[in-house]
User: Which sequence fits this backbone?
């Protein structure tokens, strides 16, 4: 296995991690920002007010994007297993 092969696999894995995490992190960030703006405007500093909606939004995002995320992970793993005989040489 050459250095280029290892770097290509690592780059593919890192891109997959970014693709899988981006929708959930973006939704959590937008919901957190919206809650923070509401808290700043109303001067309500309840900590559970910031956490609970963010958790619910993350679960909703996982429910919405979960099948797409699983498909990407399975495709990457399948390609990796198909390349395995070439990588061992």
Assistant:
């Amino acid at each position: 296995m050459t250095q280029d092969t290892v770097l290509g696999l690592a780059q593919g894995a890192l891109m997959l991690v970014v693709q899988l995490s981006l929708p959930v992190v973006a939704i959590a960030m937008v919901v957190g920002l919206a809650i923070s703006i509401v808290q700043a405007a109303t001067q309500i500093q309840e900590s559970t007010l910031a956490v609970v909606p963010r958790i619910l939004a993350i679960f909703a995002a996982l429910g919405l994007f979960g099948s797409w995320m699983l498909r990407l992970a399975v495709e990457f793993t399948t390609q990796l297993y198909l390349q395995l005989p070439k990588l061992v040489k």
About this structure: Residues 3-88 form one domain.
